[in-house]
């Protein structure tokens, strides 16, 4: 009801921006009298939730980095819905659907086959960064009516992404689920994550934001003033916003979903969600094995990006950690939970299954590499994984020693100490897991000087 009332108020209070526009046949796409409204923002959110998946940009062959995700999603939807779209370039220009630089290229009814649009989109993605987002977005109020899929977030000159789903049943770590990519620009899967960001900065209005609405006024396209947008608010920058909460992220979570869940019910919801996510990994792993088990998918290649699972496995780790926390912090009956998990079967290939409890016990040893065996992908070859990581740590020590010992000995000492700590933890896990063949000890490396000038061994 509150949202309906808000819609009615907005309907009568927001002026019409559909001024008559003479559109060029050479512009990227035509919008006619179509304009952004609250209703269109809701439709955009539903489109994001339905269509954006981890491999969305791989399927459509669009290289991205983190800042590209908000811009690309917004422009693609605007093109599909024939709505205005704009972006501020690094040199301060405002370009948009009306731009005619690509007018010689052919168009198509489907956006992904529209060469003119694709060329313009790729140009936009090269000319925008997290530094341009403050010019193209506005800060929003933090409540369930405002924060919907498609809402963007960014950390000052650092990172950005979009809200992909809003979960209001307590089954996730955080009610806001994001889609994010990494640098550098490449064809890559996005990672689905729980909302996590630093406290926003009011100087440039980082944090949770929405894209501004392009309007046609006085013969030109420009942005609607920031404060005239329906979801505009500066509340996230106030000192009182996070009072009573651990941090900004928790404050956002409680404003989106304020329900206090029964600990056991919460655990069951998170468990069900995690089981579903683990089961969704099965066909991904099988497809990767079929394509890559004979080789040809080295890390960093396009095939590796398609068939590897580092982002998905990272999400599983986060969910499993959250399950551990819920069980231990609420003193839930661990044997009862264990029996529940043992009853859940995960069929990893024809004729072979593992229990969810196995995954729960070994989630840190899931392999993301598509060239590994099915057993290795599911933590059934834990000792091999540990041994492989021990060797990687030892190789890293040798590389650091060779590369940095003379030119930067302090960095070499620091890096080697880190690798030795990793190596020690791996050996402890090896012994704990009762692996049969003992790993070779790390090579003795020079990591510092005594007062007598001799190198100290470790």
Structure characteristics:
14 strands; 458 residues; 3 domains; alpha+beta; two-stranded antiparallel ribbon; six-stranded antiparallel beta sheet; globular
Structure description:
With 458 residues, this protein is α+β, with helices and mostly antiparallel strands. It has three domains: 17-256, no CATH class; 263-380, no CATH class; 398-457, no CATH class. Helix content is 42%, strand content 13%. The protein is built from 15 helices and 14 strands. The strands form five sheets. The protein has a six-stranded antiparallel sheet. Strands 1-2 form a two-stranded antiparallel sheet. It has a two-stranded antiparallel sheet with strand order 9-10. Helix 8 (263-292) runs antiparallel to helix 10 and helix 11 crosses helix 12. The longest helix is centred in the middle third of the chain and has 30 residues, at 263-292.
Strand and helix map with partners:
Blueprint: H1 2-13, H2 38-51, H3 56-59, H4 68-81, E1 86-88, E2 94-96, H5 115-127, H6 133-136, E3 137-139, E4 152-155, E5 159-166, E6 176-180, E7 191-194, E8 207-211, E9 214-217, E10 220-223, H7 248-256, H8 263-292, H9 302-307, H10 310-329, H11 334-342, E11 345-349, E12 352-355, H12 356-362, H13 374-377, H14 382-404, H15 409-432, E13 446-449, E14 455-457
Helix pairs in contact: 4-5, 8-10, 11-12, 14-15
